[in-house]
Structure formats: C-alpha cells, structure tokens
Design goal:
two-stranded antiparallel ribbon, about 40% helix, nine-stranded parallel sheet, single chain
Length: about 325
C-alpha cells in the first residue's frame, strides 16, 4: 500500500507522471478512466506562478474527479519556490511535488529540475524550506544523479527524507542521460531496500507494459510505479497492468471502436477545457498515437492532424471507424 499523508492506495499503485504539455485535465481525465491511481499536473514554473503568468496559473486547475492529485513545481531559487508552494496549496491538491528530475536543457541549465542534482546542498535546503512552509505532504521526483560519475541517489534520498519529504520518486536515469539508454532500476531497488529508508519509494522509467511492471515490483519492492511516456497514445496501459497483476494474464488490447470512442471523448474534453483552436491543435499528437499502426493510414492521418474544423474531425473519426471496422 502507498500512503502519503491522507492519500492511501492499495496494492500495486500506478501513478501518472507529470509531463509538460501532456498531463493536462483532458488527458488526466482519460488516464483516470483507465485506472491511474494518483496523478500530477504538468510541472509548473515557480517564477511563472509568482508572477501570475497565465499559463502557469492555468495549470493549477484541478477537479475532484481527478483525486488524489498532486501539483508539481520547479524552480532554482528557494523563496520563489516557497511562495509558489503557498499559491499551489490554494488550489487544494492532495500533495505538493518538487521537480528535481526534468533534464530539459532550458530548465536544468538554470539549476532547476535535474540541474539541482549539481548542487545537492541547495536541493536539501530548498526542500526543507518548502516542507516547513507547506500544510500539505511534500514529495520529490528526481533522478539517479547528475551524470554517470555522480550517481548519488542513496545519499540524496536519505537527506531528503531527513528534512521531511513523505515520498520519493526516482527515475532510473541520470540528468545527462535525458531519455537515452535504459533506465537502471537496480539503484532504485537499492534505495528502496536500504534499512535507513522509511518513506515510500516510487520507481519510474521504461515501464512499457504489464510484464515489465510486474517484474519491477517483484525485483525492487517499490511502493508504486510511475508511468510517463508509455501512456501517450496508450492510456489503457493502467488497465492492462492492473489486470495482469491481478490475474497473471495479458488483457487483449482495445479494439478500434473503443479507440475511436476514446479519441472522441478526449477531443471533447480538450475542446471544453481549451476551446478552439487550441483544443484542436493540442489533440493532434494524441490522434496520431491513438491510431498508430493502422494499415494504409497515412492519408487519413494527414487530414486528421491538419484539419482545423471540429465537424470535419468528427467526420474523419467516423471514417476511421467505418473503414477499419473489420479490425475489431
């Protein structure tokens, strides 16, 4: 069981990773329908939030049907992060998560995200200040270390625990690795099974299907697994993993009719939350991924991801359902 403050999730919790321009309310709604146990907002810049930037403030919007949910913040200075934490608490999330894991250069080179791993004393000082000034449970997401020569995650985990975080998510790569190579879960397991670690440890990285999820739970004993990129175009991965963990059997993938229905629902939620034309533009990556692998799909896909009309997109989805009905 995973317990973080008032959040309690039974055996084998599955978490949706915070992802920029992806884990917005429409996508979170979809993932919740398929079994995500705990979700997070897109990560929010503390600088943008305290300056009341429209994009940052908009990311604070959460809904009761998403609970439990955490708001994730990033920044490189302590005072703005503390102030942003107070602002985030006003949105009434279930927890505050600190992003010490994003490796994107424009974030890391400023010392935020995974860049904080180059200054662990500052990381610890910032975390302590946030914990002391937060009414909510504070958690952290980070990586194994900044680079191959500095995989110091065990020391970092112990020090973060000492200043009061209530759970730690570890992505099994270093900051300089970005998303290259394979995630190293052996170090995640080492942290989880260290006698000095008492907080929940959540593993993250390369969870692409039920078998690998079951293997990681078994091998490392982590309290939960967080899934990121594999959910894009495949939000039913949560359902597949849960079924496999409960029965030991693989669940058949969704048929075309379900995928079309899912795409329609996601599109509707996107329009409701973002309006036109943004709700159309930001669905394009999802449309492409939902129907990846369909034979002779190139021409239809091109229409689907270039159309700017709601009615036309609806007609294209009708066409997909009709043309590929034999695949169900």
């Amino acid at each position: 069981m995973l317990k973080i403050g008032n959040v309690e999730i039974e055996k084998y919790p599955l978490l949706l990773s915070p992802m920029e321009d992806l884990t917005d309310p429409p996508f979170r709604y979809i993932c919740k329908q398929y079994g995500a146990d705990l979700m997070y907002t897109e990560f929010i810049s503390s600088d943008g939030l305290i300056r009341h930037g429209a994009k940052s403030v908009r990311k604070l919007e959460i809904f009761d049907n998403e609970r439990p949910i955490g708001i994730q913040l990033y920044g490189h200075l302590i005072e703005p992060m503390v102030e942003a934490t107070r602002m985030a608490e006003e949105a009434l999330p279930d927890l505050i998560d600190i992003n010490f894991g994003c490796p994107v250069k424009k974030i890391a080179r400023r010392g935020a995200g995974a860049g904080m791993l180059r200054d662990v004393p500052l990381m610890i000082k910032m975390t302590e200040a946030i914990v002391q000034n937060s009414r909510l449970p504070v958690t952290v997401k980070t990586r194994l270390g900044w680079d191959e020569q500095n995989k110091n995650i065990l020391d970092v985990a112990l020090r973060l625990q000492d200043v009061g975080i209530q759970a730690l998510t570890i992505h099994g790569r270093t900051g300089t690795q970005l998303y290259r190579g394979q995630a190293d879960w052996s170090l995640i397991g080492k942290v989880k099974n260290h006698p000095g670690i008492h907080i929940p440890i959540i593993g993250n990285g390369d969870i692409t299907g039920p078998e690998i999820a079951a293997e990681r739970f078994e091998q490392t004993g982590v309290d939960a697994i967080m899934i990121g990129r594999a959910t894009v175009g495949k939000p039913w991965i949560f359902r597949e993993i849960k079924h496999y963990l409960e029965t030991g059997q693989a669940l058949p993938p969704p048929g075309l009719k379900e995928k079309v229905s899912l795409a329609r629902m996601h599109f509707q939620k996107s329009l409701q939350w973002k309006g036109e034309p943004r709700g159309i533009f930001e669905m394009r990556r999802h449309f492409s991924n939902y129907f990846k692998g369909l034979p002779d799909f190139r021409e239809i896909r091109l229409k689907l991801v270039t159309s700017t009309e709601v009615a036309e997109i609806s007609d294209i989805l009708d066409l997909i359902e009709e043309k590929y009905a034999n695949l169900d």
